[in-house]
Amino acid sequence: MAEMRIRRLPHGAGLPLPAYQSEGAAGLDLFAAVPADVPLAIAPGGWAAVPTGIAVALPEATEAQVRPRSGLAARHGVTVLNAPGTIDSDYRGEVQVLLVNLGRETFRVARGMRIAQMIIAPVLKVVPREVADLGETARGTRGFGSTGGGPTEP
Fold first, then answer.
1. How confident is the model at residue 6 (pLDDT cuts 50, 70, 90)?
2. pLDDT digits (tens, 9 = 90+) for 52-77
3. What Å distances lie between residue 117 and 72, 95, 150, CA to CA?
4. Which of 104, 105, 114 is closest to 80 using CA atoms?
5. Which of 37, 41, 65, 73 is the most buried (most CB within 10 A)?
6. What one-character-per-residue DSSP string does the chain give?
7. Interval 77-105: pLDDT, tens
8. 5-122, which class in CATH?
């Protein structure tokens, strides 16, 4: 298991550090570091950058992907606007979560609320090289919906 160093920012005092909620969980839950006396209100159709009160130093050759929590999406229509958001390994600023409210009612983000999950993933660096031919595959250039599951297929 690799180590991820975390720096707690002043407005994150007293909040849990990112944590896996079960043995098999892929993502670490992120917590809202909004003021306790001033929840953040996100109107229907609106979005906001929600602070987490932490900065991280990721292991070399990794990224953190910030993804929605399924419960917020299913119950409130709230999701991560740029899902998955990417945190690069050389970023040292505060982790923030761009939440969007696709629901019908104003959503209130309270201090300590679990707002997203962060998945640490390996990054493979490549060297872009222009070529005249990419080679043939069975799929070829067929794009959106070409592998099945379209409107007339189960």
1. very high
2. 999 999 999 999 999 999 999 999 99
3. 11, 11, 30
4. 114
5. 65
6. ----EEEE-GGGTTSPPPB-SSTT-SSEEEE----TTSPEEE-TT-EEEEEEEEEEEPPTTEEEEEE--HHHHHHH-EEETTSSEEEETT--SEEEEEEEE-SSS-EEE-TT-EEEEEEEEE---------S-----SSTT--TTTTS--TT--
7. 999 999 999 999 999 999 999 999 999 99
8. mainly beta
